[in-house]
């Protein structure tokens, strides 16, 4: 493994300084091998003043220090020795590049970004890798379990949200270890935050009737809500589905979407009803988004107004359409395993927490407990 500090002539009469590696080296930010690392340092090809000579000398010294640092890192890596210089790198910059990579993969990064916001709320805007260790992970866990929500200083962050944000932070830390920014994977030593079974805000039949009878002045929010009610899709999935993702099975005479579901980040083939297809309207180009104007903050605001005018209180959350979809299937006798697949849950246990057995089914079950008894 070796590298050479080189100069690339530019049209403006300057020289761009870069390191030419041989063989190629792995770039953890771009996730690919590269032969050249441009240093964003430039010198004058033909300096004509003492100032330009001094500039050349300064930038060459900086380039040579970077070059020596890179060669040291490669030598340590080749011999299986951790490079302590990596501990001085900026965790936030690494996290930003990690999130951008996820966005290129069309993954919903909202929880990753929020996790970083809570991290900054706790430790501020400066976080080198050397501060991250087992104790740091434990303290951040405690912070998430005790802090207020970023949305309101009067509301405590709930445990399930804290668990999600900690998981996203832990995944970034784990990836940083694999990219050799940390000497060990501290996530293995610190247990994750467990989720708790919380009451689900289910929109009941009367509330659904009121909502359907109440006008809403945003067609995109209205149609995306109906589509979520009929399919169980999360907001993050509805936001990224394209017309090219919608297919028709001739043998089954049924429509289905085939996408990479953003939240579990895995392939999802989801069959939907003709009624759900009709909600989508006239098909567009294959690469066009089905709901191009769907915006989380606008949707949240419109839902609050819509539900308030319908007299449905404390249930104005887009995710509640998914709750209703799940409980509807169970109430109508669908097998819990099938429902788990329709929701793209990895484990049936998740579905059991998500969709509680409705009271109507409990009433029917209670009525079956009858015996012939003599007084």
TrEMBL record:
Assigned keywords, A-Z: DNA recombination, DNA-binding
Record's signal peptide: none
PROSITE patterns linked to this entry: TYR_RECOMBINASE
Gene Ontology annotations of biological process type: DNA integration; DNA recombination
Keyword rRNA-binding: no
Domain of life of the native organism: Bacteria
Keyword DNA-binding assigned: yes
Residues of the Tyr recombinase domain: 198-368
GO molecular-function term, one example from the UniProt record: DNA binding
Family in the record: Belongs to the 'phage' integrase family.
PANTHER family the UniProt entry points to: PHAGE INTEGRASE-RELATED, PROPHAGE INTEGRASE INTD-RELATED
Protein name as catalogued: Tyr recombinase domain-containing protein
Natural source organism: Chitinophaga barathri
Lineage, highest ranks first: Bacteria, Pseudomonadati, Bacteroidota, Chitinophagia, Chitinophagales
């Amino acid at each position: 493994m070796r590298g050479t500090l080189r100069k690339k002539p530019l049209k403006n009469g300057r020289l761009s300084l870069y390191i030419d590696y041989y063989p190629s080296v792995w770039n953890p930010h771009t996730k690919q091998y590269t032969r050249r690392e441009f240093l964003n340092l430039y010198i004058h090809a033909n300096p004509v003043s003492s100032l330009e000579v001094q500039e050349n000398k300064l930038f060459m010294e900086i380039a040579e220090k970077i070059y020596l640092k890179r060669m040291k890192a490669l030598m340590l890596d080749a011999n299986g020795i951790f490079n302590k210089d990596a501990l001085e790198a900026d965790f936030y910059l690494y996290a930003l590049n990690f999130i951008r990579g996820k966005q290129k993969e069309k993954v919903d990064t909202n929880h990753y970004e929020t996790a970083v916001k809570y991290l900054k709320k706790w430790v501020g805007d400066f976080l080198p890798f050397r501060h991250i260790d087992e104790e740091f992970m434990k303290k951040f866990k405690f912070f998430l379990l005790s802090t207020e929500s970023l949305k309101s200083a009067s509301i405590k962050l709930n445990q399930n949200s804290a668990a999600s944000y900690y998981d996203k932070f832990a995944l970034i830390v784990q990836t940083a270890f694999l990219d050799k920014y940390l000497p060990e994977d501290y996530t293995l030593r610190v247990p994750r935050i467990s989720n708790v079974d919380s009451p689900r805000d289910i929109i009941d039949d009367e509330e659904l009737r009121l909502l359907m009878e109440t006008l809403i002045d945003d067609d995109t929010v209205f149609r995306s809500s109906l589509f979520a009610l009929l399919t169980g899709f999360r907001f993050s999935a509805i936001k990224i589905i394209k017309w090219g993702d919608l297919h028709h099975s001739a043998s089954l005479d049924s429509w289905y979407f085939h996408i990479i579901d953003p939240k579990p980040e895995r392939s999802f083939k989801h069959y939907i009803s003709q009624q759900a297809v009709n909600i989508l309207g006239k098909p567009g180009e294959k690469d066009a988004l089905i709901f191009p104007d769907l915006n989380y903050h606008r949707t949240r605001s419109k839902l609050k107004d819509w539900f308030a005018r319908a007299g449905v209180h404390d249930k104005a959350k887009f995710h509640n359409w998914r709750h209703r979809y799940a409980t509807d299937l169970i109430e109508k006798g669908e097998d819990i395993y099938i429902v788990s697949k329709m929701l793209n849950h990895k484990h049936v246990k998740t579905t059991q927490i998500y969709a509680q057995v409705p009271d109507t089914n409990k009433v029917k079950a209670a009525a079956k407990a009858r015996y012939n008894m003599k007084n």
